[in-house]
Each structure stands twice: as C-alpha cells, then as structure tokens.
Amino acid sequence: MDDYLIFNNFQVVTHKPSIEFAAILAAIPDLKYWSYEALTILVVDLSETISALEDDDATKKQKTQFRSFRRMVSRFLEYMPKDRAFLLKRIYDLVLSCDGLSPLHGFGFSNGFGDHLTGNPEYQSVYAT
Q1: How many domains does the chain have?
Q2: Which of 33, 95, 97, 122 has the largest count of CB atoms under 10 Å?
Q3: Residue from 100, 107, 102, 99 nearest 124 by CA
C-alpha cells in the first residue's frame, strides 16, 4: 500500500521527501505576496515537518532520500538570501530542483526587430503569475 499526502485536495503519492516538499510549496497560492519573514518561516517549518515524516522502519533507500533532503534544505537555509525577491527566486528554484528540473538557462527575450532583451523568460513568467 502506498503512502500519500493530501494537501488542498491535491493527492501526492510518493515516498520521496523532496517531492512532498515541492508539492506543498507549489500548491500554496500567491507566494509572491508573502513577506520575507513569512517565507522564511514557511521553508523552515515545512522542512521540519517533512523531516519528521521519516519512519523508524524506513528502508535504506528512504533513509538516504531523507538524508539528502535534510542536506539540501540545510544548504538552502545556510545561504538564505537577505532580500525578499531573491528568496522567492530561490524558493522557485528549490521547487524545480526537487522535481529534478532546473531553470532554462540560455533562453532570452527578443522582439520583431531582432533586439535581444535582458532577462530570463522563465523567471518573468513565474513572477507574472
């Protein structure tokens, strides 16, 4: 029987803590309006909650996944940005990395005149939502 996590009527069937962490962060609406303090508390408390889900009778693979998750979160917390916008960007990057993805580097904006505009379209679309 599979374990699953239900959050806001969204069911996640997984044994990986990073997937649970990313699913919960992705399900929270309007993160871009949260304050720096609220975002910090969210990441810290959510990481502690996910770490507490580890069973004593977990398999070696599951223990390795939890250890990897704790290491990833501790590195994130160690280098926590002091700026709210940069913290939000790092949280989006953390969600992508938990899903095994990364931002699409090398893509840029252009217009009908052939101008190359600065910025990453992936970040711009995330910030616009």
Answers
A1: 1
A2: 95
A3: 107
Distances (CA, A) of 96 to 3, 55, 100, 128: 23, 26, 6, 17
| Distance, CA of 123 to CA of 88 (rounded, Å) | 11
CA pair distance 98, 19, nearest whole angstrom: 6
Structural domain containing residue 65: 4-104
Q: Could you tell me the two tokens for 72? A: 């990833």
Residues 18-38 pLDDT 10s: 877 887 787 787 888 899 999
The model scores a pTM over 0.85: no
The verdict on residue 78 lying in a domain is yes
**What digits encode the pLDDT tens for the residues 42-61?**
888 888 888 887 777 778 88
How far lies 117's CA from each of 101, 107, 111, in Å? Answer: 25, 11, 8
